[in-house]
TrEMBL record:
Protein known as: Hydroxyacid dehydrogenase
Organism: Sulfobacillus benefaciens
Start and end residues of each Dipicolinate synthase subunit A N-terminal domain: 5-110
Transmembrane segments: none
InterPro entries per the UniProt record, alphabetical: DpaA_N (IPR031629), NAD(P)-bd_dom_sf (IPR036291)
Amino acid sequence: MSTRVVVAGGDARDAWLCRFLEDQGYEVKSFGFHVEGVRPFCPKDAPLNIFIGPMTGIDAQGRMETVDGEVVLSSDILHSMSEGAVVAAGLIASPIKERAKSLGIKTIEYRNQTTFMWLNAVPTAEGAIKSAIGRSGFTLYHRPIAVLGFGRVGSILALRLQAYGAMPEIFDRAVEKRAMASAMGFPVHSLDPKWCPPVDGVFNTIPAPVLTRQWAEATDPVWIIDLASKPGGLHPSIADDAAILSRYESYLGVPGHIAPRRAAEIIWETLASILQDQSGRVMRTQRGSLS
């Protein structure tokens, strides 16, 4: 018997996820969006094995934002799922996790998985660079760029910028992160704009209000690209400053926009690795088969 999977679609990556899973031999249905060649899900369909919600998550009432609007992971759907089934989404509210657990259903929040975060850092970095190219009137080659934060995204971004021939300057509060960046050959500074030389642009990866007026004035960047998750890195004191906002962009959901096919693979690779660890069975994760 084939494994039955439902994908609730929030963006282009979910459409590619449907196609990817079909190529892997799964029986796939879409929920809340249309994918050519994929049957839409009806809550009265046969019991499910895997339900995959969107990156934005499932709230306490089971609601999800999809392309076609709001859909709901109802109690009826949960009760129809087979024992040992899986509900996955970017985030899952506690009431849904508790209800699923009581029914013998596993839950996975893939956005919080280390595997997902590292793999997702690559398209995020590449998309950020694509957005930055051409904004200053210069190439990236031999140009100074500030990178705030040297976590997963910051470190991958710095390496990609270095490969372009740019000159990234790393800023981080943590001594260990600065030491890591220094060991990799980057100029490092504490998180204070007074240490920053003039730069073409600033990438922020820190999910805290670190982008203050001092950053905009001391470094005078042509552009500021904020990759931090909501509410982002812009300090409330400059949230209405037109001069700064003209240079500022909050760039969220980058993988789904810049590389939806790879983003779909990353979601499934993350889920498959977790399911394999839990069951001891090897899940199908072949890459490059998207048609």
